[in-house]
Design a protein that fits this description.
This protein has 392 residues and is an alpha/beta fold. The chain contains 15 helices and 13 strands. The strands form two sheets. It has a seven-stranded parallel beta sheet with strand order 3-2-1-4-5-6-7, with helices on both faces. Helix 9 links the parallel strand 9 and strand 10. The protein is globular.
Length: 392
């Protein structure tokens, strides 16, 4: 540590969130670590724009481009940070953004923190791949790669209680302690004021995330569509936000297979901008996250951050975080993969009325925000990192 500052570099492939929840967590972690007075934060990326640089700079995070290497995929340029970049701690994420850290630890003589976001062997049971490769064997390979990286890292961080328990079990034989980082409320979204208009004729249900075909069953998109169809009431409208460009029709057709009427469905592309996301959230009456398995479940936290009523599956890290610490969260958790149970839960939220449902959710947001605080968790993580560097 030079000048009493801890120099932390996070490996990333973007500043925004076009590639999903990992990017969001990575950015938020960088922003909150940068609030510590004794930490200097660098965001190492293959490419970036001037807008990215300006946005990160306003958060006291410095974006640095990795050195371009011909013949390598851009994400693998992350193995080659500038030689003169001071690094005490390098933070990697999963296999995709973690494998480079083992090289940087040697080249820059630093410590390595590995963050895990998923349990591939659990997800693979529900994934489908268009190339017909066996999803289970692919998930098994990914899982062992995750474990091997965790074994050789200097510190392992799991996102949320579900993954903390999962990796603690896998790594206890090696006497490796896992740090639990449960994401707190997103301040960019919590400042949004949800309007409470006179109850309208339509009830908009938001289903959002990345609409990749391989994750259709995993994310429970079919459960959502069938649930809305089973309500047998065309005043319920399902708004899906997360289609990849070019596959909107394919995704819409799959959602309609559950009996949903075409006039009840709207499909939009994936959103990577907080402003656009906030607009969509504020237009909805309810967000549903019916994933069959979820390491954490960031979309539910985004809804809670806005104060939008939501329903989330029990088999998610976010659901576990809610249930374990906040008893009043029970009405918002659905312990079933059956679409009729989700239909009942949706109808129950509507019966509350928009004003009452939003008030309940905002109370829950306040309780969650007191339990899971970015600042205190990041301060505890900084203490761990300082101990690594100092050898204590």
């Amino acid at each position: 540590m030079s000048n009493s500052k801890l120099h932390v570099t996070l490996l990333a492939d973007e500043w925004k969130s076009s590639k999903g929840g990992l990017s969001t967590i990575n950015r938020e972690l960088a922003i909150h670590l940068a609030k510590h007075p004794n930490v200097s934060v660098t965001f190492l990326v293959p490419k970036c724009t001037e807008d990215d640089k300006n946005a990160s700079s306003s958060c006291n995070v410095r974006i640095v481009k990795a050195r371009e290497r011909y013949g390598f995929d851009p994400v693998d340029w992350l193995s080659f940070p500038p030689n003169d970049l001071p690094i005490d701690i390098v933070i990697g994420h999963g296999v995709k953004l973690g494998k480079h850290a083992q090289i940087i630890r040697e080249s820059h003589r630093c410590k390595w923190v590995q963050v895990v976001h998923t349990a591939p062997e659990q997800l693979s049971m529900l994934k489908t791949y268009s190339d017909c490769e066996n999803a289970i064997s692919r998930g098994d390979r990914k899982q062992w790669n995750e474990i091997q990286l965790c074994k050789i890292a200097d510190l392992v961080v799991a996102v949320g209680p579900r993954l903390w328990e999962f990796y603690s079990r896998y790594l206890r034989r090696f006497k490796i302690d896992v740090f639990n980082l449960t994401p707190g409320i997103f301040s960019e979204l919590s400042s949004l004021e949800l309007s409470i208009p006179v109850e309208g004729e339509m009830f908009n249900i938001l289903l959002f995330g990345r609409g990749d075909s391989e994750d259709f069953a995993l994310k429970g998109f079919d459960i959502a569509a069938k649930a809305v169809a089973q309500l047998n009431d065309t005043s319920y409208q399902l708004v899906f936000v997360g289609a990849t460009s070019g596959n909107e029709k394919e995704l819409a057709d799959k959602l309609l297979e559950g009996g949903l009427r075409r006039k009840q469905l709207i499909v939009k592309e994936y959103l990577e901008d907080w402003e656009d996301l906030a607009t969509v959230l504020s237009a909805a009456d309810l967000a549903i996250i019916p994933s069959r398995s979820e390491g954490f479940g960031l979309t539910a936290l985004e809804a809670l951050s806005v104060g939008l009523p939501f329903l989330v599956t029990q088999t998610s890290g976010f659901g576990k975080a809610l249930q374990g610490a906040l008893p009043q969260s029970t009405p918002w958790i659905v312990d079933s993969e059956e679409s009729d149970k989700w239909a009942e839960a949706i109808k129950s939220v509507r019966k509350k009325g928009r004003k009452a449902a939003i008030a309940e959710c905002q109370t829950l947001r306040e309780s969650y925000g007191k339990k899971y605080i970015w600042e205190s968790q990041c301060n505890a993580l900084v203490e761990k990192m300082v101990s690594l560097v100092s050898g204590e």
